[in-house]
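Q: What would this chain look like folded?
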Amino acid sequence: MPNIRPSSDLRNKYNEISEFCHENNEPVYITKNGKGDLAVMSIETFEQLAGKFELYKMLDEGLEDMKSNRVRAAADVFIELDNGI
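A: My prediction, written as structure tokens:
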């Protein structure tokens, strides 16, 4: 269940929100005038999420390379690495 809080809690209950984010490794959703406005999370959670996005991007690039036949045999790559490219 997502943790949803009004924007006034950022000002009035910042420490409580920070503690929740650090303990649960999940965001707190902030509303403004009853509508979703922000997602607040710990730096650790943000970095983990950004890392996942980077991994997904690299995997997608690899899949595109495979579809476009821009691939080489792993054995050839290892030989090049052993020879110092």
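The CA atoms of residues 6 and 12 lie 10 Å apart.
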